[in-house]
Write a structure and sequence with these properties.
474 residues, alpha+beta, Uridine Diphospho-n-acetylenolpyruvylglucosamine Reductase, domain 2, Uridine Diphospho-n-acetylenolpyruvylglucosamine Reductase, domain 3, Alpha-Beta Plaits, 7-stranded antiparallel β-sheet, 5-stranded antiparallel β-sheet, 34% helix, 21% strand, globular, binds flavin-adenine dinucleotide
Length: 474
Amino acid sequence: MITLNPVSDQFRKLLATQVPEDCFRPLSPSHLEDPRGNYVGMKGIVLAPRTVDEVSTIVRLCAEHLVPIVPIGGGTGLVAGHIMTNGPAPVILSLDRMKAIRELLPQEDVIVVEAGATLFSVQEAAKEAGLLFPLSLAAEGTCQIGGNLATNARGVNVLRYGNMRDLCLGLEVVLPDGQIWHGLSRLRKDNSGFDLRNLLIGSEGALGIITAATLRLHPRPSGYATALMTIGGSSAALKLLKYAQKLAGSAISAFELIQGVGLDFLSETMPDLRLPFDKNPEWAVLIDLGLHKGQNGDDILLELFEFGLEAGLVNDGLIAQSEGQRTDFWNVREHIPEANRLIGAVANHDISLPLGKIPEFIELASARIQEIAPLRVNCFGHLGDGNLHFNIFPPRAETPDAYVSIKPSVDLLVCDLVKDLNGSFSAEHGIGRAKVEMLQKYGDPAKLFAIDAIKQALDPSGIMNPGADLPNTQ
Ligand SMILES: Cc1cc2nc3c(=O)[nH]c(=O)nc-3n(C[C@H](O)[C@H](O)[C@H](O)COP(=O)(O)OP(=O)(O)OC[C@H]3O[C@@H](n4cnc5c(N)ncnc54)[C@H](O)[C@@H]3O)c2cc1C
């Protein structure tokens, strides 16, 4: 393995001769922390270039002098991909100043944006053009398009529109030797050789710096219909989803599972947040329909509710009667991660399973955790995608610190069960540094070999985000 060098005064001076002085930014805590407060990054220098050529110059110099680079977007990643926890002081490359919307082509349903644009700003630009950029997640005000691409972000609308990969037509990327790949294609079909775009999407900064992207827009639904229904459990939720798909087809843009524990956490940590039911149910689903012109969403939701009631799947339900009420329903779902953070988790798992295996997983994992300790489970997630956030908390009035020693056995239990049920230990958050060991343990050996070979070929010195995304790089 090649030994990397820390950023030195000499290297800083060299950089200053080749990139404008305003690229140098002060190091702030946000460059070194992750949203859950579990990791602390190595201090280094922060560079925020304004153009792809400046990014290229920085990367080329880092490659020549074997200095590690850590790309950082909004810093909302949940697996420490943007936090280098050990090794030589790196260049922390912030995309904050590259946030222009370069082009919006409504006739093609296409937008070309720079990597530092926040997801929210891209949603808003699409909205102004009467279109929709459908990627949506709770961190959308802060996370950036480059980070969304580097993690292949998913969120609540995958059921209808797919994940970030499905929304990207082309990329502009600075490769680890400083070369610029001009891949901002607007083509929907391009079968000319290996698909570099799909290789870079989800590579978590380990194969290059994404500087811009061509993204696919969609027609804006003419309206939305939203319901919250209380249900008996995940098995009932799956049956309800099946019937909802029969009734509404692709109009279903989100189908979210919520466990009552999450609502209890909201009551405990955010007493001012309006909760929809007088008494928190054990389980609920949040269903969102994006409607075509002429479609009556309330009728569809009412029919779904009546079917659910008759079939014994649904106990109670609310259909949003105004935009304000719809926002209230979504506020409940979107604040659960923050409530989890405030309560303090012993372990967090972002897993995916074949849809039919979800009830078995929840039942077995919850029971087996109780055999280790009387912990609380808060399970919620994007049910339609088979993606659960399965998070484990200390008993009421206790702190997670007392349970640090059992975290490895909880992780093992959850991941082993996920593997037995043919699922994945990482559904949407990626590998980062938090899940490298899991990748090593559960990853297919041939896949690990190929990942290693690709990394070696593109980044033989290992300067790009060392320690992230794959074993054996730090
Ligand atoms: C409250 C909350 C809710 C969330 N909900 C979801 C959800 O529903 N679905 C989901 O998928 N994720 C979710 N996340 C995780 C996170 O928001 C996503 O992973 C997001 O895509 C990260 O974007 P970012 O700009 O913050 O990237 P960062 O956190 O800055 O970086 C993430 C990774 O991408 C790399 N990177 C960043 N920018 C670039 C670039 N330009 N070029 C190359 N590499 C780069 C970094 O090195 C790092 O490895 C949530 C996070 C929070 C805090």
